[in-house]
TrEMBL record:
SUPFAM superfamilies: POZ domain
Pathway field: Protein modification; protein ubiquitination
Keywords assigned by UniProt, alphabetized: Ubl conjugation pathway
Any one GO biological process: jasmonic acid mediated signaling pathway
Keyword Phosphoprotein: no
Domain SKP1 component POZ, residue spans: 1-32
Listed PANTHER family: SKP1
Stated name of the protein: SKP1 component POZ domain-containing protein
Species of provenance: Solanum commersonii (Commerson's wild potato)
UniProt family annotation: Belongs to the SKP1 family.
């Protein structure tokens, strides 16, 4: 959604607590702040970030997946 200029779109996120919302914002910031250049180092850094980002307990992963599902329904 962010990459497709939906940054002003309201996405309803029922039952999303502040811990999960903070993680979503962290993820979005990282992906937005990465230069769009074809820099191989930057892409590798992003892959590393993504791999580390998903190391959560099942409950947190489930809630992050719900945010992803809702964002895809409304985006």
């Amino acid at each position: 959604m962010i990459e497709n200029d939906y940054d002003n779109t309201i996405i309803p996120l029922p039952k999303v607590n502040r811990k999960i919302l903070a993680k979503v914002i962290e993820y979005c910031k990282c992906h937005l702040e990465v230069p769009k250049a074809e820099d191989k180092t930057t892409k590798e850094d992003l892959k590393t970030f993504d791999a580390e980002f998903v190391k959560f307990d099942e409950s947190t992963l489930f809630n992050l997946m719900l945010v992803w599902i809702f964002s895809n329904l409304y985006g």
